[in-house]
Amino acid sequence: MDASPEHIGHVLRDRRMALDLTPQDVFEAIHLRVDYIRAIETLNADALPSIGYVLGYVRSYAKFLGLNADEAVARYKAEIAAPENICVSHLPHFVPKNKIKLPRGFIPALGVLGFAVMLSVWYGGTMASQAANPALLSVDSQTDTQMKEAPIDPNLVTLKASAPSWVQVTDGKGKTIISRIFVTGETYSAIRGSDLTFSVRDAGAVDIYIGKENLGALGEMGQALKDVPFPR
């Protein structure tokens, strides 16, 4: 029997399938992109935007499936940080080392060979290396492309602190999801149309985004807002 634990992506997928829902059904209900759903279910972080937005997706997805949203977010944060460690707790924590007996004179010969290779590289020069390996330039350009900003779901609503301010978010039943002072740059995200409300102590210190578009501050500096519904 396989005793390996499931990661949170598998839990979400199994719950969705148990409810006889397809990724398209989920998209139509909470507007979470199908490719994002599949990436969350497989912990494929490379196919997702930044972690701040993804945690909002996970929270909305888990809540829609009737699971504990806080627990789902906590597990996702822990498991996405080191996915290679998932399902290997049953393996030993050491690897036996086999002794290898090298032939006499092998180490000195290896040193001579290494020195010869180093001389060859030095005499060849940097330009010769680039001429022999033109693909190296395209690797650099691909890296630059990968560093560009990840796509953002246009249905995502984000509160972002431009200065420290207390922020509280509650669900449709009045349960508090978060209630703390946001530091500058801290965000909270939810899918547009979520049954959530927010309160802030300083509306001028919190900006609201729809997708990538910054709609500006929630209000005037020092203005307090209470139980404002998230945009629909």
Automatic annotation (TrEMBL):
It comes from Litorimonas taeanensis. Signal peptide: none annotated. The lineage of its organism: Bacteria, Pseudomonadati, Pseudomonadota, Alphaproteobacteria, Maricaulales. The keyword Transmembrane applies. Keywords: Membrane, Transmembrane, Transmembrane helix. Residues 158-219 form the Cytoskeleton protein RodZ-like C-terminal domain. InterPro entries: Bact_Cytoskel_RodZ (IPR050400), Lambda_DNA-bd_dom_sf (IPR010982), RodZ-like_C (IPR025194). The chain crosses the membrane at residues 106-125. This is Uncharacterized protein DUF4115. Pfam families: HTH_25 (PF13413), RodZ_C (PF13464). GO terms for molecular function: DNA binding. The keyword Membrane applies. It comes from the Bacteria.
